[in-house]
Amino acid sequence: LIERGFSAQLHSLLPVDSSYSESILQQLYDFVPASTYNLDEYVRFRTVRDVFVEFVKGIRISQLEGKDVIRILQPDIRRFSNMKTLVLLDGIPFDDHETILNYDARLIHYIHRYTGKYTFGGELYDGIVSFITHRGTLPDIRLDKNSQMFSYEFPQKRIAFVAPSYNSEKQAGSRLPDFRHTLYWNPEITPAMSTLNFYTSDMNGIYIITLQGISVDGREIRMQSEFVVGANH
């Protein structure tokens, strides 16, 4: 416990311990908006309906069964589609477009318009209109009493494991203490990687090797072994 406590303090003082850094999170989809409006750059209007009328291009309000619906101009056919438009507010879909049309536009930061066909929840949509509020939390919106909110785990930034290297003579002769307890971690091992290389630390003792994953046929793989680091080994 004393050794672990000491090594934990060294981690905050010296850059010698294993560390985890966030690698770049790639965009999940390659969807690029056909147009984007930053409402902070325009004169503010009271409702989304007013914003559409005043300056948003490629979107119009139509009537369907006595209700107002949002339609998107599709450049390939050069007309407004008669299919459904997927309308999102802070990522939440709204089938009742009038709720969004009457929404306070002063709370909205961005409007993104996407053309093309998209599937969502078993439905086919012709275009997406995505509204992003400043707060990103559906401010001042009342969901239908039959609605239910769920929390989803979205893609997280990848963690990159970083450990010291002692390839050169200068690195091998470094007097910086190396009190790592985790010597190597790699979540993306492939069959082509027949050899994995890493350096041990200054901490003597028994180290456990754990290999776990899922085979191509869905079976869980878990193997363990151990090795000893010490002056006599």
State the main characteristics.
233 residues; five-stranded mixed β-sheet; three-stranded antiparallel β-sheet; mainly beta
Descriptive report:
This protein has 233 residues and is mostly beta strands. The strands form four sheets. Strands 2-8-9-6-7 form a five-stranded mixed β-sheet, with no helix packed on it. A hairpin with a 2-residue loop joins strand 8 and strand 9. About 2% of the residues have low confidence.
Question: How many angstroms separate the termini?
Answer: 23 Å
Radius of gyration in whole Å, from Cα? 28 Å
Structural class: mainly beta
Topology order in helix (H) and strand (E) letters = HEEHEEEEEHEEEHEE
Brief rundown of the structure:
The protein has helices at about 1-15, 50-55, 95-100, 170; strands at about 20, 35-40, 60-65, 65-75, 80, 85-90, 90-95, 110-120, 125-135, 160, 205-215, 220-230. With about 230 residues, the chain is mostly beta strands.
Write the layout of secondary structure elements.
Elements: H1 2-13, E1 19-22, E2 35-38, H2 48-54, E3 59-64, E4 67-74, E5 79-80, E6 86-89, E7 92-93, H3 97-101, E8 108-120, E9 123-133, E10 159-162, H4 169-172, E11 205-214, E12 220-229
Parallel strand pairs: 6-9
Antiparallel strand pairs: 1-10, 2-8, 3-4, 4-5, 6-7, 8-9, 11-12
